[in-house]
Amino acid sequence: MSGEKLVGIVLVSHSAEVAAAVAALAKGLAGGADAVQVAPAGGTEGGGLGTSAELISAAAASVDRGAGVAVLTDLGSAVLTVKALLAEGDELPEDTRLVDAPFLEGAVAAVVTAAAGADLAAVEAAAAEAYSYRKV
Known about the structure:
The chain is α/β, with parallel strands linked by helices. Helix content is 45%, strand content 14%. The protein has a four-stranded parallel β-sheet, with helices on both faces. Helix 1 (16-29) crosses helix 4 and helix 4 (103-115) runs antiparallel to helix 5 (120-129). The longest helix has 14 residues, at 16-29. It starts with 7 loop residues before the first strand and ends in a 7-residue tail after the last helix. The mean pLDDT is 94.
């Protein structure tokens, strides 16, 4: 896959630890998925609970390889922060999409799909489909 443009994934949580753990789990369950760029953007700059527009923007820039960036969030204000960044128009890479998906299951589906070389629409669809996963 060298030189291949893959969709980047940003995982936004109110907790830095949760974002990092979900990123590690998603990559691990995707067989390592070393080629896929996955960046956690959790908590505030000072390490507290919350969301940070600056951390989200930096994470999105760090995973952008020209195939788009899928952003998954955990809770309400994380969604609002990403929506505000998208509305500003110049804070996130051009092809950045807020994905409506469950945080953990959606992250795994997004990373697996991105690792297969799928485009942004397919990564978004796979993550959103995780809402239908049944556990019992």
